[in-house]
Structures are given as structure tokens and as C-alpha cells.
Amino acid sequence: MKKIISLLCLALAACSSNKTSSSPEEITYISESSELQHISNDIVYIRDIIKTPDNKIYLLGDTEDYEFSGAEIEYLRPLLQSEYITPMLKKADKNYYLGISIYADRSNNNVQLTYRLGMPVKHVKTLRQSLQGLKPRWTNYYNDGRCNTNDFFYPAPADCKGKERPTQLVFEIDAKEDRLNGKIVKLSNRDDILKNPSLPIAIRSYVYNYRLKTDKEKRSEKWENTKEAVKDGVKDTLMIITAPIWLPLYSYGFSRRIG
């Protein structure tokens, strides 16, 4: 599946100048950012996945591409393993599953990606090799959680003591703190690449779109929060003022129930 493309043919026609920070403390979760407004959800098809000589991975979508670099690409290695990705995409087989979700900050052209793989355990060795040496940013389990291990690299599936021998493996990078951070770009030669894609078929994926809130939206949201705070304050004040009336009645009723 791996496609090596020369640096010359990978010139970008358009690309965000905003660099995605690789520093965890600087990363905010797009879907939970108070600065962003959710605008739409789209179904997109990832037509190809390529790794380039300058150590980047691109997911080529219908009309745009998603670039990942640095440490983030190491966690995309499982998507480059033809041993299970090819049958996963070619066959309508319930034993294989691949799901990709992309959270897109349209105002800054940043993305965060999650994915989930399901496959027969016969592929576990290949999957482990693709992740060897990486700090865990994933969750995995066998047979729908009936056989778990905290260490993905041990035990072997047959070692789940007291359980039936597992046949299925689920691997996912899905927790918000484990999302893979990249950016939205567009390759100038994407049409040429897609004439001969390395993927047997496109991957149906989901994109959740967000943008920066306008000043008007921020003011409206602040006003709504203020109104709620005032309402809660008035309620608390009334409770205190009327306590001499309702508290004795409540105490009397409570004592009757426990008596």
C-alpha cells in the first residue's frame, strides 16, 4: 500500500500557514473548544493514504487532503498495512472494520483524527509491529471486551486465561486526549495520484466541521450564561428568605417518615 512519491510532485497548491502544535499542553479539543461553533457533519471518502519521503502522511479526501507529520504519523502506521487493510476494504466481511472520524477547525485549517480497526486476531503480529516502541495512545480488546489486556504487546491472544480463545481484535485511537493532530491542505497533483490509488476502494469517513464563533455569538452566549447565573442567584435568595416557612414543615414531615 505504501506509495513513495517524489518531493517534486508533492508541491502544495494551497496549504494553511497555521502550524498544528505538537505540544500537548497547547492542543485544545476541537469538539469541546469554547471558541468554536459546530456548523455541520459530512460524509467524505478517503481515496488514498500516502507516505512521502519528507516523513509526512496524507489522507486524500474528495476535495481536500489531511496532512500529518512528526510523531503523529507514527500512530497512522496501522493504516498502511496492506495485510489487513486490503481485505478490510475489499470484502463485505463482518470480521473486518475500519472507521475514521475527522474533527475540522475550518477557521484555522486544523484537524484532529480518530480511527477504529476491527480484524481477526491472526493480524495481531503485524499490527503490533507497526506500533512497536510507541507510547500508548490507543485502546484495544479482544472479542468485544471479553478478553482484555493492559499491555497490547502481551499476552498473545491465546493466553487469555479462563476465557474462550479470542478470534477478534479491536484497536482504536478514539479518546479525545489521543487524537492525532494535523492540518487541512490540498495537494497540487492530487488528481494524478488518484488516477492510480493504492487503496482498493475508498474509506467512508465522517468529518465534523467547526468554525470560530463570531463576536455576536460570544456576546449572546455570555448573556445567556449571565441570565442563568442571575436566575440561580434569585432562586437561592428566595430559598434563604422563605426558609423560616418551609424548613419547619420539611423537618416535621421528615421526622414523621422516619418515626
The main sheet comes to: 11 strands, mixed
Mean pLDDT: 82
Low-confidence stretches: 1-24
Spatial gap, N to C terminus: 75 Å
Helical content class? 10-25%
Outline: flat
Question: SS-based structural class?
Answer: alpha+beta
Task: Spell out the helices and strands N to C.
Answer: EEEEEHEEHEEEHEHH
Rg: 25 Å
Total helical elements:
5
Work out the number of β strands: 11
Provide a compact summary of the structure.
The protein has helices spanning 82-90, 124-131, 190-193, 215-241, 243-258, and strands at 12-15, 36-46, 48-52, 56-60, 65-69, 97-105, 110-120, 139-142, 168-173, 180-187, 203-212. By secondary structure, it is an alpha+beta fold.
Give an overview of the whole structure.
- This protein is α+β, with helices and mostly antiparallel strands and 259 residues long.
- The chain starts with 11 loop residues before the first strand and ends with a helix.
- Helix content is 25%, strand content 30%.
- The chain has five helices and eleven strands.
